[in-house]
Amino acid sequence: MEYIYAALLLHKNGKEINEENLRKVVSSTGISVDDGKIKSLVASLKGIDIEKELESASLIAAAPVVGTTAGTSEKKEEKPKEEKREAAAEGLSALFG
Question: Any idea what DSSP says for residue 13?
């Protein structure tokens, strides 16, 4: 993950995402640098429009969740709560006689 974060940091600051810059950013965090991971990341990012990918990722994350209507979900929630309360009350009465 730290390599991807480093690439995003370089992108945000308008720097070129290359092996040397990634190595500098990752090594500045104090972790050991894996040259294989850096080479792999640079190769995978060639020809990718990072800004466009970030926009599409934001759209996916902001998409509404499709689910049941509010009325049905409330009815489903009420029954278990009542059952839990009754079970809890029975448990307490067992403690105190």
Answer: T
Tokens of 20: 């040397």
Does this model's pTM top 0.70?
Answer: no
Residue 41: pLDDT band with limits 50, 70, 90 = very high
How is 27-51 classified by DSSP, letter by letter? Answer: HHTTSPP-HHHHHHHHHHHTT--HH
Kindly give the residue spans of alpha helices, DSSP state H, lying in the chain: 2-12, 19-28, 35-45, 50-62, 70-96
Digit-coded pLDDT (tens) for 44-55: 999 989 998 888
- Mean pLDDT (the chain) is 79
Check: CB of residue 36 under 8 Å from CB of residue 42.
no
Q: Yes or no: is domain 1-48 CATH 1.20.140.10?
A: no
Residue 3: strand, helix, or coil? helix
